[in-house]
Design a protein that fits this description.
heterodimer, A: 113 residues, six-stranded mixed sheet, B: mainly beta, four-stranded antiparallel sheet
């Protein structure tokens, strides 16, 4: 079946540090890939997406590239801020039929001043 | 637009009690979903609906029932609560999917504790 594996957290960084959160997936066919972010006390919101191989999703300084050859969708940001502290979820959805989201377990990011 | 709203925000139940969680969306979305979020397990789909009057089981449906009598509302019921149902419950909604991606819009969650 389809599944998503994320690196375990928490990831603890100082402000302005470089961020990478690893995500790999297992899926039949060619899924769409997503990063969702959950700020403290809130629901999840879509951060970025990529719908086909080699696509790069980007938003708010975050980027992730859909790598079919390594089945990966790693999240990166060049300079994190305290306000980026949140839980980040990688997810996939197949592109045919009913598109249920399959989530990874989430990675907590803590950014200190 | 309020987006997706959930009531209540918090609830404490005793084992065996029943309750209903209400989800409402004002985006005219066809699809609605109920998830539970547990530490170290990410989000797991409980039930979903692809339109008014329809419901379907997700990954972890046991112990829950749902109803979608109106397009904008999706109710999640616990008939006889158990401590294993202590969790944070999220509702989400999305447009009918005919494109290549599926952005779901989430509510703020309901934290349920079963003693």
């Amino acid at each position: 079946g389809n599944s998503v594996t994320q690196m375990e957290g928490p990831v603890t960084l100082s402000e302005e540090a470089f961020l990478t959160i690893n995500c790999t997936y297992t899926a039949t066919g060619y899924p769409s890939l997503f990063w969702y972010v959950q700020y403290p006390g809130e629901g999840l919101q879509l951060l970025l997406k990529a719908t086909k191989a080699d696509d790069k999703g980007s938003n708010k300084g975050f980027e992730a590239t859909y790598r079919k050859e390594t089945t990966s969708f790693h999240l990166e940001k060049g300079s994190v801020q305290v306000s980026d502290s949140a839980v980040y979820f990688c997810a996939l959805s197949k592109n045919t039929g009913f598109q249920k989201l399959v989530f990874g377990t989430g990675t907590r990011l803590l950014v200190s001043p | 637009n309020a987006g997706v709203t959930q009531t209540p925000k918090f609830r404490v139940l005793k084992t065996g009690q029943s309750m209903t969680l209400l989800c409402a969306q004002d985006m005219n979305h066809e699809y609605m979903y109920w998830y539970r979020q547990d530490p170290g397990m990410g989000l797991r789909l409980i039930h979903y609906s692809v339109g008014e009057g329809t419901t379907a089981k997700g990954e972890v449906p046991d112990g829950y029932n749902v109803s979608r009598l109106k397009k904008q509302n999706f109710l999640l019921g616990l008939e006889s609560a158990a401590p294993s149902q202590t969790s944070v419950y999220f509702c989400a909604s999305s447009y009918e999917v005919k494109l290549t991606y599926n952005e779901q819009f989430f509510g703020p969650g309901t934290r349920l504790t079963v003693l």
